[in-house]
Specification:
Blueprint (H helix, E strand, L loop, with lengths): L20 E5 L2 E8 L5 E8 L4 E6 L2 E7 L7 E8 L5 E8 L11 E6 L2 E7 L1
Antiparallel strand pairs: 1-2, 2-3, 3-4, 4-5, 6-7, 7-8, 8-9
């Protein structure tokens, strides 16, 4: 979990991104999408709202892997730079309810270069 480290949020034009693919299976949820025009990278965010594991992978490599069995924060934020020559910044936020979060929908927002590209209840 991190806050905006660099004041990044860049270009005014929409970032090059594929249509996000959202998957749900009981308490598990994930979203995956391609980022980049010339330098393509696949980003996947997954979590299990009941058992707590959270993972963010870029091209199959773990960038974030943690377990959140108990959290006092209602919102978690992850900032991930993606790419080398063609750099993009991915921000994923997950907002939960105060009570019984494991049994209720949690709002997930995905931003690429400060543009909202996916929003879903998981």
């Amino acid at each position: 979990m991190s806050s905006s480290p660099m004041g990044w949020y860049g270009p005014s034009e929409p970032p090059p991104i594929s249509q996000p693919e959202i998957r749900r299976d009981g308490f598990k949820s994930s979203v995956g999408f391609w980022v980049g025009a010339n330098e393509r990278h696949y980003v996947e965010f997954s979590f299990d709202k009941f058992w707590g594991p959270v993972a963010i992978r870029v091209d199959g490599q773990a960038r974030v892997s943690q377990v959140q069995l108990m959290s006092f924060s209602l919102e978690n934020v992850w900032d991930i730079p993606v790419g080398f020559q063609e750099l993009h910044y991915v921000r994923i936020t997950k907002t939960r309810k105060v009570a019984f979060a494991g049994f209720r929908d949690q709002l997930v927002n995905v931003y690429v270069d400060n543009v909202l590209v996916a929003q879903y209840n998981a």
